[in-house]
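Budget justification, computational time. The allocation requested in the original proposal was used primarily to generate structure tokens for proteins on the priority list. As evidence of use, we reproduce two of the resulting records. The first is shown immediately below.
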Amino acid sequence: PGGVAPSSAANAGEALAPYQSAQYEVGGKLDLGNVGASLAFFQTTQPSATTDPTTNIYAADGEQRNRGVEFSVFGELRPGLRLLGGVSVTEAKLTETAGGTNDGNDAVGVPLYQINAGAEWDCPWLEGLTFNARLLHTGRQYINTGNSQEIDSWTRIDMGARFAQEIAGREASFLLNVENVANSGYWASSQGGYLVQGAPLTVKLSMSMDF
């Protein structure tokens, strides 16, 4: 979908026509049974929208070109211990902007790199109990096409547990997730020029049962 003009623009709320993008990707996957990895190189181009500082009109202006690489690993290192992680590096540049003003600048809301890692461990002393942890790290992001403002990189740690048990002949799962265990304050994203605040420490408890 096309972008929507922000409230600060003269045409606030106007939705632009749908974007047409082009993407190329090549990669490979290695599967060794218990462990594996994948590697992919990609390029994506699509129209770029911004608010003209002279007219204050939000409109498609130029093109955004993303080039990058993604690497991920996954598998069970030992019985009961599973890992999943990956890293992506993206060079998001603006091209063909009006008058070439912002040509070569970084695109808004696209971090240079992202690192995610997660692990699950089945508790050997209580059948059905699994602990998990996840680390998220996102690089800095620019807020405007002129690259004069940016938000800092951020790191978040999540932890949780899952307990699976049979109740009245039916499989049931109890889930406990604690997001942002350090209660870190951060801006999660500036996608589209909007600042999205990261959620504080959040505890979620749920239960599901098969029927």
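The second record produced under the same allocation is shown here.
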Amino acid sequence: MEILDNIALLAVSFFLLAKGADFFVDGASEVAAKLKIPQIIIGLTIVAMGTSAPEAAVSISAALEGNASITIGNIVGSNILNILIILGVSAAITRLAVGKDTSYVDIPVMLAATIILLVLGIDGTINVYDGIIFLVIFVLYLAYLFVIARKRINKRELAAALEGATAQSMPATVNFAADGAQPITAPDGQAMGADDGTAADKPADEKEQKKKTIWLSLGYTVLGLLMIVFGSNFAVDSATYLAEKMGVTDRFIGLTVVALGTSLPELFTSVTAAIKKNADIAIGNIVGSNIFNILFIVGLSSVITPVPFEKKFLIDAAIALAAGVILWVPCLSKKSIGRATGIIMLGAYCAYFIYLIFMQ
């Protein structure tokens, strides 16, 4: 009876994840549009951190409970799955265009974080000093993101101001010189630009409507995040129970079942974003989530308590690095991730999964 209950709970968790991801992507996209924030920044920060909440909850709770050994398996397994499965499926659905910043900054940061994890883990432990290094790099990376976002917004505002100033400085007759049409005058002898009082109310009404829309979008974002987190927790608990009943090892569970469960938010969010043609969110979500997983979650967990890094995880971390390179190559050469790359990613994960089965 318990097995049937857990299967039912797994089905409910998938529903929560699917609808939660839908609400979350829509809400985050609308907030980005209303606040004139580039989608890639939303994908690399809010969406990435939000969808990494399950990894953070599992890993940090494990560290607090003195069971930090599952942290590396959860993080490395999630990062491999994020690229090879999630972006593989997303690219198989639709071609994902990749921005210059993602290709030349964000993906290299992800690869560098993976290399640092691999190097620091050679001695068998990620200690408190290693954790501080990760957290410092994470803060610097966040600072970079917000500086770039601010510059983009300033450039957009400057361009709009210049366009407005140019339009105001042009003579009225310029618009009519080509066809000899007469300039438009205000009715009833009113001067151009005068109004009857309704124009003054219109901007206020639009501002109020915009405010309501932003709050509604934020509401959808928060609701979607809550559904994602609860759905992930249900999925991990039920899937772990079912896996243990099948008699597989803890390492296998950590790298597959727990990694899959905590990566379900990224899966549903990125696939939903790909279907909705929001490629920046689909890719930014994964790259940002992988960076967040290593720099923040491993960093914070190791500051709480030293995190064991078994020798077997060196192979898994190397595979995570190879997955990042598979992602990076088409981004540099083709500026996009197409169906062929998606199929290669899915095939690579199948090979990795077979390796785990035989090596457990």
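A brief technical remark on that second record: DSSP finds eleven helices and four strands in the chain.
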